[in-house]
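Consortium newsletter contribution from the modelling node. Members have asked for a concrete example of what our holo predictions look like. Here is one, prepared for the adenosine-5'-triphosphate complex that several groups have been discussing at recent meetings.
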Amino acid sequence: MVEATNFIESIINEELESGKVTAIQTRFPPEPNGYLHVGHAKSMCINFGIAKKYGGKCNLFLDDTNPSKEKTEFVEAIQADIKWLGFSWAEIHYASDFFDKIYELAEKLIVEGKAYVSDETAEEIRQRRGTLTQPGEESPYRNRSAEESLTLFREMREGKYADGEKVLRAKIDMASPNINMRDPVIYRILRATHHRTGDKWCIYPMYDYAHPICDAMQGVTHSLCTLEFEDHRPLYNWVTENCGFAHPPRQIEFARLNITNTLMSKRYLKKLVEDGAVDGWDDPRMSTLSGIRNRGIPAEALIDFCERIGVCKANSEVEAGYLEAVTRDYLNIHADRAMAVANPLKVKLINAKEETLSFEYNPNEPEKGSREISFSDEIYIDADDFSLDPPPKYHRLKKDGYVRLKNAYIIKYEDVVLDENGNPAELVCSVVEGSKSGNDTSGVKCKGVIQWVDAKTCVDAELRRYSSLLKDAEYAGQDFGERLNYDSVSVKHGKAEAYLAQIPQGERLQILRTGYYKTAKTENGGLLLSEIVSMKDNFNAKK
Ligand code: ATP
Ligand code: MG
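And here is the predicted structure:
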């Protein structure tokens, strides 16, 4: 018996022990009406994770019962995202594959007196539905004969009625304390071209009716979904029971993943894309999986994040900084190091000679060794690493001070050239003799270590950083349109080691003292360094 790490696995263990189930089957059931987001990653980790843990299988199930919103583009994007996370489905099924069977079962329900065609409008149905404290009122069509309902239902299918003119309702209980059980609509008339079945159908089953049938037809044993479906469970069970499935799946609900300041609904994400507020579904600021991938967050880090937040029964909100912290931990171990300066300040080194120095790929992977970097009598440092008027305990370069250049030498301040505003335009320094990194015999004590690039070989680099698409939580509750942060991309024109323009695009690096970046190309073909996560850990610092 495998050890349970959450309440769902405990339930499964009990069922295996009692012999209620023998083989485990789950499914990941997105609706192809948009791109997957980080919340779906949690659902995938649970569904694919449980199947793997129990030696069972997990299908990809595309829930395409709402043709007006679904597209093949989304189906393809969903598949790419699942593969990117490293999951593979046993079988792929579409709700639309089961449309014939779902229809046939609806006829069976009608014949057995468990469903009826109603001529009520959506508004009339709503008005008669009752409230949490008041029972609903029966439909005037509820006692229509099975024969009449069957004829009407067939005519609905044949296209005899306009959209919305009739619906098929399950005959359950208008007085049920659970509103979902008050004769829910299970079929509607809708003339929309379906992305797979085209114009074959003009009636479509409702989610609550189709989903349990599709689960059962696939042989799913555990239908795992988010908490908002808890109230739908009695209906789920009613459908599988009344449709005559001998081994009905068991629905178990878990808490949705919510992340502070993060949009997590396809509807809103889609609106951002359609309004042009972002550069498409894969904009690096988006919480879609394609956005996260494009941002440069590794799939391994995202999975680690989902595992660390775990599976719970109660809704809660995870700090946005947590995914970043997990990503930073991962990249700190796996990302090679390189140097770039975001705000270049030229430094002339009066006594330096051109030479090749050695730079370790990654101190956490010493077996990778080192690469060569060039050094000369002209370098760039970051303007923020020099101060004319330093605060106390300033360990970087100041007038008459010293600083160590990472993997190179200690340099000493000699002179500064100021621009017309009195800001440093250029520095003159000298190299301290005998101060080479790894073999320092100079005796000069120097606390600060800064990054630099060789001015003679470096390349121009655009450094792009991202912040949240939403303004802070004080705006929570407001419409997301009012919370949009139009200032969520910042750009700096810096200098980078030539090496960064030579390696493949998409490489993830720690740019020393700057952040974790992904290499890419600008619109003009230049080097783009695109921030994955900042260097600073706001998440752990806050705790
Ligand atoms: P959205 O509101 O973004 O469209 P959804 O729940 O309608 O989300 P589906 O495509 O129907 O999206 O979801 C597929 C599966 O992913 C469902 O089982 C759903 O419960 C799960 N899921 C969706 N969002 C989250 C989330 N934030 N956390 C965990 N699971 C989620
Ligand atoms: Mg949905």
